[in-house]
């Protein structure tokens, strides 16, 4: 089946405005099949894992965490997303590293020595950053929202063909078997816009 998914979402368990349940409900209304909740490690509130496991949703909810990883230029963010056996590590929003492309590629390589990087985001808060969608960054490139509130939900996502199974989804991402999608795409603008209107009604 074709699955629509979000790999980067924040909640009230770090600096997000929506509870895990509210975030899940927002994405379910937008037609998603899975989301990963990836709150910041340095802001994480207690009972995070319990709160995620209590979310009631038709979607598959991944437990994740956004790690603060130190590197020569300060720090960068890497999401760690838990499957059953598989684990996915995504280097997040490279545009935020705010260095030249060449230095950014070096930093990704440096971080990959500490964490087994599986994919690199090509979005910042859901907006496409094409300068990182290049063969010089030798990883699958993923679109994600990094949503911190309702307005941030539904800008960038992935679609893939897999059973609704955590490890199958993670393997598909690792192997680059997915499509990046954006709410701004012509064909999708109308349905995304309609859904937003419903959300705010
Ligand atoms: Zn984030």
Write the layout of secondary structure elements.
Layout (H helix, E strand, L loop, with lengths): L1 E8 L10 H10 L4 E7 L7 H6 L6 E12 L2 E9 L4 E5 L9 H12 L6 E3 L1 E2 L2 E2 L12 E2 L13 E6 L4 H9 L4 E4 L3 H15 L1
Parallel strand pairs: 1-2, 2-3, 5-6, 6-9
Antiparallel strand pairs: 1-10, 3-4, 4-5, 7-8, 10-11
Bound molecules: zinc ion.
Zinc ion binds next to loops.
CATH class: Alpha Beta
Low-confidence stretches: 187-201
What small-molecule ligands were found? zinc ion
| Helix/strand order, N-terminal first | EHEHEEEHEEEEEHEH
What integer value in Å does the Rg equal?
16 Å
CATH topology: TIM Barrel
- The CATH architecture term is Alpha-Beta Barrel
Query: Can you tell me the CATH superfamily?
Result: Metal-dependent hydrolases
Give an overview in words.
This protein is α/β, with parallel strands linked by helices and 201 residues long. 26% of the residues lie in helices and 30% in strands. A nine-stranded mixed β-sheet has the order 9-6-5-4-3-2-1-10-11. The chain has a two-stranded antiparallel sheet with strand order 7-8. Strand 4 (74-82) and strand 5 (87-91) form a beta hairpin. Residues 187-201 have low confidence and may be disordered. Bound molecules: zinc ion. Zinc ion is lined by residues 8, 10, 66, 77, 92, 146.
């Amino acid at each position: 089946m074709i699955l629509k998914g979000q790999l980067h979402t924040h909640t009230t368990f770090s600096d997000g405005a929506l509870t895990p349940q509210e975030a899940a409900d927002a994405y379910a209304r937008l037609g998603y099949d899975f989301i990963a909740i990836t709150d910041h490690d340095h802001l994480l509130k207690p009972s995070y894992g319990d709160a995620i496991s209590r979310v009631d949703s038709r979607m598959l909810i991944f437990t994740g965490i956004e790690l603060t990883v130190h590197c020569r230029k300060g720090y960068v963010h890497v999401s760690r997303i838990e499957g059953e056996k598989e684990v996915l590590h995504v280097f997040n929003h490279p545009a935020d590293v705010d260095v030249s492309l060449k230095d950014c590629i070096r930093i990704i390589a440096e971080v990959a020595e500490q964490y087994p990087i599986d994919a690199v985001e090509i979005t910042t808060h859901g907006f496409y950053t094409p300068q990182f969608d290049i063969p010089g960054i030798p990883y699958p490139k993923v679109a994600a929202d990094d949503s911190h509130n309702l307005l941030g939900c539904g800008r960038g996502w992935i679609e893939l063909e897999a059973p609704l199974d955590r490890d199958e989804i993670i393997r598909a991402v690792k192997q680059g078997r997915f499509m990046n999608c954006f709410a701004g795409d012509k064909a999708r603008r109308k349905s995304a816009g309609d859904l937003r209107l419903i959300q705010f009604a």
